From TrEMBL:
<dbReference type="InterPro" id="IPR050127">
    <property type="entry name" value="Serine_Proteases_S1"/>
</dbReference>
<dbReference type="GO" id="GO:0005615">
    <property type="term" value="C:extracellular space"/>
</dbReference>
<dbReference type="GO" id="GO:0004252">
    <property type="term" value="F:serine-type endopeptidase activity"/>
</dbReference>
<dbReference type="InterPro" id="IPR001314">
    <property type="entry name" value="Peptidase_S1A"/>
</dbReference>
<feature type="domain" description="Peptidase S1">
    <location>
        <begin position="1"/>
        <end position="136"/>
    </location>
</feature>
<dbReference type="InterPro" id="IPR009003">
    <property type="entry name" value="Peptidase_S1_PA"/>
</dbReference>
<dbReference type="InterPro" id="IPR001254">
    <property type="entry name" value="Trypsin_dom"/>
</dbReference>
<dbReference type="Pfam" id="PF00089">
    <property type="entry name" value="Trypsin"/>
</dbReference>
<dbReference type="GO" id="GO:0006508">
    <property type="term" value="P:proteolysis"/>
</dbReference>
<protein>
    <recommendedName>
        <fullName>Peptidase S1 domain-containing protein</fullName>
    </recommendedName>
</protein>
<dbReference type="InterPro" id="IPR043504">
    <property type="entry name" value="Peptidase_S1_PA_chymotrypsin"/>
</dbReference>
<keyword id="KW-0720">Serine protease</keyword>
<keyword id="KW-0378">Hydrolase</keyword>
<keyword id="KW-0645">Protease</keyword>
<dbReference type="InterPro" id="IPR018114">
    <property type="entry name" value="TRYPSIN_HIS"/>
</dbReference>
Length: 136
C-alpha cells in the first residue's frame, strides 16, 4: 500500500516506486481517500492514467541511493474527487520551507525501524524543517 496526496480534483501525487508495475496496474487499481482509518475510506476512484517522472530509475534496487531521485508519480483519477470536511486538496509549495519551521506530516506508512507494521489509524507528527545541507 502506498500513500499519496490529492493536488486537485483529478490528480494524486505519490512516489514513482508506488506506480511501478506490478504494484499498480492502472486498469484495475482503486484509489481511496477521505478517512482516518485505512480500512474505512469512504471515497474511491479507478485510476485513469499514471505519469512517472521521466528521470526516475525504474530499475533501482532497494539499497540504491539513487532510488529516491525523481521518485514522483502523478495518478489521474477516473472519477474526480470533491473537497469536503474530510477531503482537502494539498497546496504545493512554491519554494523550500524556512529552516526550523514546524510542519505536519501524516500517513499510514511503516512505524517500525526493524520490520514492518502499517497502522490502521492515520498517523501524524509535527517536525522541524532541516536546512538542505544538514539533510543530505
Amino acid at each position: 500500500m502506498c500513500g499519496g496526496s490529492l493536488i486537485n480534483a483529478n490528480w494524486v501525487i505519490t512516489a514513482a516506486h508506488c506506480c511501478k508495475i506490478p504494484l499498480i496496474h492502472h486498469l484495475n487499481e482503486t484509489i481511496k481517500w477521505g478517512g482516518l482509518k485505512v480500512n474505512r475510506l469512504p471515497f474511491q476512484s479507478k485510476v485513469a492514467k499514471r505519469i512517472i517522472h521521466h528521470k526516475y530509475n525504474m530499475n533501482a534496487t532497494e539499497n540504491d541511493p539513487k532510488r529516491l531521485s525523481h521518485d514522483y508519480c502523478l495518478i489521474k483519477l477516473a472519477t474526480p474527487a470533491v473537497q469536503s470536511a474530510t477531503v482537502k486538496f494539498v497546496k504545493l509549495a512554491k519554494g523550500y520551507p524556512k529552516t526550523d519551521k514546524m510542519v505536519l506530516v501524516t500517513g499510514w506508512g511503516n512505524t517500525m525501524v526493524d520490520g514492518v507494521k502499517n497502522p490502521i489509524d492515520l498517523q501524524a507528527a509535527e517536525l522541524h524543517v532541516m536546512d538542505r545541507k544538514s539533510c543530505q
